[in-house]
């Protein structure tokens, strides 16, 4: 799969080199700041003017790294957020971190990626290194980026370098951050891989080279699909345990005492965020196009997608024990972010649960210390404060996502009925 290599492209020139970071969101910002910290000049290009203005002002709302880091990088001028594409004209490297969502039909929406590829191709210079970090289907780097760059610059591995380095950010994870998480590097040619390794070794402790961008793209999707499949399995097991009168947590804890060959996953109200429910669909989509469908993964995705509706059934069942008819019941959801200790509600199961309850005519309020409001069926709903009065008034309090700063003991003591959708440690 390697291209012809007759000479090495311009080698990395050192910390004075500037990097064009395209898409400065959850993933892009920490990457931008990591390179800025190591002496690179990082131009953070993003198409969202409000987001760029917030970055320029060091607004803590947009910060997925530490606010201090952002302010420091802005102060010393090592990080420059902008909507001005011309600022990218002299970059020695480009790193692309734009979104790769699904369209309403559940198939990959590559529009941001394609727009970024076209834009980058217009601003690259000979000798440039282009790295894609956005998660996508195996073949994306070669299909979408390579032809545009070849047309503009010539021979890959000779006139420019191109490769895929999958992002591994885990929002809210204080232990594993960009600086101590190994990265996979797959260049289009061996020279591309070497060049990208030399770049990333400035900011990450360990890089693992693979033979192609496709190997790196597939490894990333294997990681996310592994989680999706295992979560689907314990979600299904939980339904069985509920029917059989068993405590699924007790069962998983018991199995987890085996010191080899087992890894504990926990059931829940469903999977959320931009990765676990979304990225595996890039793989199933590509596999169907190759006439090699991934049935197990497709079943897992469907199982997890259905899990919030199972939670709604559980809620309706508990509400039957209330003296008020369901149509007058008031339900309090606690924690609407898709995982503990973050403010991210993208694809959050809590939103599906809220929408469904509202559609069933049940009144719903929510409390989340990190999420001040959410949009439910086009209407803004605001987080309510926890109080004795509220907890006495509701028919049921449901723990959907347990943030560390939620007082579980207080809620269970004051509320007449409590349903816990969380599991595990
Ligand atoms: N969030 C995560 O935890 C996570 C983890 C691993 C991988 N990923 C992957 O990383 C990629 C980025 O995800 P994210 O969570 O950072 O998304 P995000 O929405 O937080 O950020 C993407 C940014 O790109 C900007 N953008 C959109 N189109 C653009 C364009 N054409 N040019 C320049 N900027 C553009 C948006 O305005 C936004 O600020 C996705 O492929 C995602 O699957 C995300």
Write the layout of secondary structure elements.
Elements: E1 18-22, H1 28-37, E2 41-45, H2 49-56, H3 67-76, E3 79-82, E4 93-96, H4 111-123, E5 129-132, H5 140-153, E6 161-164, E7 183-187, H6 190-200, E8 207-210, H7 213-244, H8 248-255, H9 279-289, H10 295-319, E9 330-334, H11 349-359, E10 363-367, E11 373-376, E12 379-382, H12 388-393, E13 396-399, H13 408-414, E14 418-420
Parallel strand pairs: 1-2, 1-4, 2-3, 4-5, 5-6, 7-8, 9-10, 9-13, 13-14
Antiparallel strand pairs: 6-7, 11-12
Helix pairs in contact: 4-5, 7-9, 7-10, 10-11
Nicotinamide-adenine-dinucleotide (NAD) is lined by residues 22-28, 45-48, 51, 97-100, 112, 115-116, 134-135, 167, 169, 171, 273-275, 279.
Describe the structure concisely.
The chain is α/β, with parallel strands linked by helices. It is built from 13 helices and 14 strands. It folds into three domains: 18-211, NAD(P)-binding Rossmann-like Domain (Rossmann fold); 221-262 and 275-302; 308-420, 3-Layer(aba) Sandwich (Rossmann fold).
Describe this structure in words.
The chain contains 13 helices and 14 strands. It is an alpha/beta fold and 425 residues long. It folds into three domains: 18-211, Rossmann fold (3-Layer(aba) Sandwich), CATH 3.40.50; 221-262 and 275-302; 308-420, Rossmann fold. The strands form three sheets. The chain has an eight-stranded mixed sheet, with helices on both faces. A four-stranded parallel sheet has the order 10-9-13-14, covered by helices on one side. The chain is globular, with a radius of gyration of 24 Å. The structure holds nicotinamide-adenine-dinucleotide.
């Amino acid at each position: 799969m390697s291209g012809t290599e007759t000479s090495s492209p311009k080698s990395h020139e050192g910390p004075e080199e500037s990097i064009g970071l395209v898409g400065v969101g959850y993933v892009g910002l920490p990457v931008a700041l990591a390179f800025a910290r190591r002496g690179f000049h990082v131009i953070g290009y993003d198409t969202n003017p409000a987001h760029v203005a917030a970055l320029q002002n060091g607004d803590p709302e947009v910060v997925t790294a530490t606010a201090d880091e952002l302010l420091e990088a802005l102060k010393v001028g090592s990080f420059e957020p902008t909507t001005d594409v011309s600022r990218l004209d002299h970059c020695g490297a480009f790193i692309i971190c734009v979104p790769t969502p699904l369209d309403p039909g559940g198939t990959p929406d590559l529009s941001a990626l394609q727009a970024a590829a076209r834009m980058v191709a217009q601003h690259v210079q000979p000798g440039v290194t282009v790295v894609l970090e956005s998660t996508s289907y195996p073949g994306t780097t070669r299909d979408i980026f390579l032809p545009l760059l070849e047309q503009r610059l010539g021979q890959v591995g000779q006139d420019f370098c191109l490769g895929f380095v999958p992002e591994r950010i885990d929002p809210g994870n204080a232990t594993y951050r960009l600086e101590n998480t190994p990265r996979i590097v797959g260049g289009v040619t061996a020279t591309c891989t070497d060049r990208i390794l030399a770049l990333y070794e400035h900011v990450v402790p360990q890089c693992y080279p693979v033979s192609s961008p496709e190997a790196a793209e597939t490894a990333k999707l294997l990681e996310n699909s592994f989680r999706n499949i295992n979560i689907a399995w314990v979600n299904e097991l939980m339904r069985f345990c509920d029917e059989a009168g068993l405590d699924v947590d007790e069962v998983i804890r018991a199995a987890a005492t085996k010191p080899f060959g087992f890894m504990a996953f926990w059931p829940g109200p469903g999977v959320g965020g931009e990765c676990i429910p979304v990225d595996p669909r890039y793989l199933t989509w590509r596999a169907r196009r190759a006439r090699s469908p991934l049935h197990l993964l497709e079943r897992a995705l469907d199982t997890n997608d259905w899990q919030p509706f199972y939670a709604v059934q559980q809620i309706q069942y508990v509400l039957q024990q209330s003296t008020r008819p369901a149509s007058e019941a008031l339900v309090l959801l606690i924690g609407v972010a898709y995982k503990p200790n973050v403010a991210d509600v993208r694809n959050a199961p809590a939103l599906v649960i809220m929408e469904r309850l509202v559609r069933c005519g049940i009144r719903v309020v929510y409390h989340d210390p990190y999420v001040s409001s959410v949009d439910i069926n086009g209407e803004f709903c605001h987080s309510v404060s926890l109080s004795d009065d509220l907890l006495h008034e509701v028919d049921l309090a449901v723990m959907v996502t347990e943030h560390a700063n939620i007082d579980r003991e207080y809620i269970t003591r004051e509320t007449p009925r409590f349903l816990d959708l969380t599991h595990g440690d």
